[in-house]
Please model this.
Amino acid sequence: MRMKDRIRQLKAEKGAIILAHFYQEPDVQDVADFIGDSLDLSRKASETDAQIIVFCGVNFMAETAKILSPEKKVLLPVYNSSCPMAMMINKRRLLDYKAKNPDRKIICYVNSYAEVKALSDVCVTSSNAEKIITHFQHEKMLYIPDKNLGMYLKDRYDLDIDIWPGYCRVHNNLKVEDVVIARNKHPHAQVLIHPEAPLDVLKQADYVGSTRGILNYAQQSSHQAFVIGTESGMLYPLQKACPGKSFHILKEPMSCVNMKKTRLTDVLRALEEEQYEIHVEEGIRKQAKKALDLMLELS
Ligand code: SF4
Model:
């Protein structure tokens, strides 16, 4: 039996659901029940009736699913698929900051671990960060851990906000000259960039938004060609959603090694052996859930 068919059969037998991030390999996206960005996947994880969630992404995403759905078995197919940005902040450093700045609201990007979310007031994703930040705009804030999304928000709104110095290596690597080169190469294309890129690069874009935002923009636009400034896995769902249009990556390579660790064989093994199960300590989970629930309520 073909591996994809075996995965689909096992999934049905076990009543499992496969969730996959847009950055996953095309083969993995093909066996998923639902593909999306962090906000889409958080919502889906909290709404599904399935008792087993196989989460194809990096570990903070599977952890988020477990926080929202503690009664379900959440499986991460590759044990060590982690996000370097999420590791740029930890509980000890955040507690230290909070002790010195007790009046600041902690606005936490979902690209973070449960113990950090548990110390935060609200979570955001790149889809809803603008909406949520305006809710707190008259308060003093700390934005963690992505400096680029933080700088983008600070530039757009008049905020009293401290910004943590974390970043995504894939997006932080983009330069203004990359946009200039891409525009010369594809003069009729629109440039769509994810807000994890540096602010000077974002100012060169025709559109700045999350992966879901980029997908919606490309679908609704009358333009036929686009330069995409985010992880290269995004080209596959874009091409599927917009078959007549052309998409070019802003810079080669724009590939997240951790997102690309998950293979079909890992998904199959996850279902066969029900591994690797995600656990979150209950006290931390409850606190982290408050920040995620507020995000879902405000978005
Ligand atoms: S693309 Fe960047 S933010 Fe996303 S998982 Fe990879 S390193 Fe983390």
Notes: The chain has three domains: 3-81+259-279, 86-167+286-298, 170-249. The chain has a mean pLDDT of 97.
